[in-house]
Design brief:
The complex is a heterodimer of chains A (154) and B (230). Chain A is α+β, with helices and mostly antiparallel strands. Chain A has helices at residues 2-9, 11-39; strands at 51-55, 58-65, 74-83, 93-97, 107-109, 111-114, 117-123, 133-140, 144-151. The chains are: A alpha+beta (154), B mainly alpha (230).
Chain lengths: 154, 230
């Protein structure tokens, strides 16, 4: 009876407190888990040098300059193909995005600058969520795709 | 290279998919706050005005990108404004939530205690007590500057299209057209969210309404924290 009277007199204190606690309990761990699970996908450190992925008989080397790799800056993406595989018949391209978040199409078009070496300019945008893990999906026509997952500096 | 018409369709489709995938998370709290604040009448006109303002901002930014051909140069200049708008959006949601919950003595405060400039206090009081229809358009213009990943991505495309245009004026028109298409594409998702939040049964249930206000306040604080860290 006393508890019911208290709830009737102080509904604003009971329900907001319950909601606040629920929100903190549910939201914070979920947000932290999402961020940390994306960080586990990182397979590349572009701040330190180039990254290499193998597609068939070909090593595909991706380098981004200038370093460190920052969002909202003009970046140069360099791709070098080396190995026993044949040279691609079409020019590769890179699609930039975030794992788990649709950021819209952001394609880096490349042009040949040497034998099996291609370059293109692009921008990695800043996400207000604070997540800094990005994915560069490199498509080499007639050969396949390579995914580079890395973090950027905001 | 795709023709401008085809690109515009691509941007429209992109806005539509991104609207349901991303915009609901970013702009959803804002449109929900507006819907809950509207006391009576249709929600469609206020929200249409809000989206008209927002899409106009995108269109203008698209024109600037198309003219300059440089996304990074323009956004570097905009960064401070965007941070300010981000913080303002968070504060707006918090204040609207406080007013909805009845925890902000806005009328008393502005009328009896502090009235330094009549225009500002009258405007703010109107915004707190109930969101009046005309205020939605300038709010949309302002909140169109909110930093947003997909908008940035679309602006990159607009800058590129501008660079590839034969003349600067073509670049401006192309950039404007692409961002207009993108903005229009994002509208359906947010109108749907606004409609769901504006349902009468939600507002008539006192406790649910109060809970909504509290959630708004929390989301507003999250916005402010993210804005400071942005």
């Amino acid at each position: 009876m006393v508890r019911i009277q208290l709830i009737n007199h102080f509904p604003m204190q009971v329900f907001p407190t319950f909601l606040l606690i629920s929100f903190i309990l549910c939201f914070s761990p979920a947000a932290i888990h999402a961020n940390s699970s994306y960080r586990k996908l990182i397979n590349c450190d572009l701040h330190d040098g180039a990254c290499v992925q193998r597609v068939g008989d070909t090593d595909i080397i991706l380098e981004v300059t200038p370093k460190p790799v920052r969002a909202m800056k003009d970046l140069v993406f360099s791709v070098t193909l080396s190995g026993k595989g044949e040279s691609p018949k079409s020019i590769p391209y890179i699609d930039l995005g975030m794992p788990g978040m649709d950021m819209g199409p952001n394609r880096v078009k490349m042009k040949p600058v040497g034998e099996n070496v291609f370059e293109g300019k692009g921008v990695i945008v800043k996400c207000p969520s604070g997540h800094r893990v990005w994915r560069a999906t490199l498509t080499v026509p007639d050969m396949g795709k390579a995914e580079y997952i890395f973090d950027v500096i905001y | 290279m795709l023709s401008t018409d085809t690109l515009a369709l691509v941007y429209l489709a992109t806005g539509f998919t991104v609207g349901f995938g991303h915009c609901i998370g970013m702009c959803g709290p804002i449109v929900v706050s507006f819907s809950l604040s509207l006391e009576k009448g249709s929600i469609y006109l206020p929200h249409s005005l809000y989206h008209a303002g927002r899409v106009l901002t995108y269109t203008i930014l698209g024109g600037i990108m198309g003219a300059t051909g440089s996304f990074t140069a323009v956004t570097a200049h905009m960064a401070g404004i965007q941070k300010g708008v981000f913080i303002f959006a968070g504060l707006l949601i918090v204040v609207m939530g406080l007013a909805m919950a009845g925890w902000l003595p806005s009328g008393k405060f502005f009328r009896d205690y502090y009235d330094p400039v009549g225009f500002i206090s009258r405007g703010f009081k109107k915004l707190l007590n109930k969101a009046t229809t005309p205020t939605f358009f300038p709010l949309g213009l302002l909140l169109g500057f909110l930093p947003c990943g997909p908008v940035y991505t679309a602006l990159i495309g607009a800058a590129r299209a501008g660079m590839e245009a034969p003349t600067p004026s073509d670049g401006i028109l192309t950039g404007m057209g692409l961002m207009f298409a993108f903005g229009i594409g994002t509208v359906p998702a947010l109108i749907l969210v606004a409609r769901l939040a504006g349902m009468k049964w939600l507002k008539n249930r006192e406790i649910i309404y109060k809970c909504g206000a509290i959630l708004m306040i929390l989301v507003g604080f999250v916005f402010i924290i993210k804005a400071i860290r942005f």
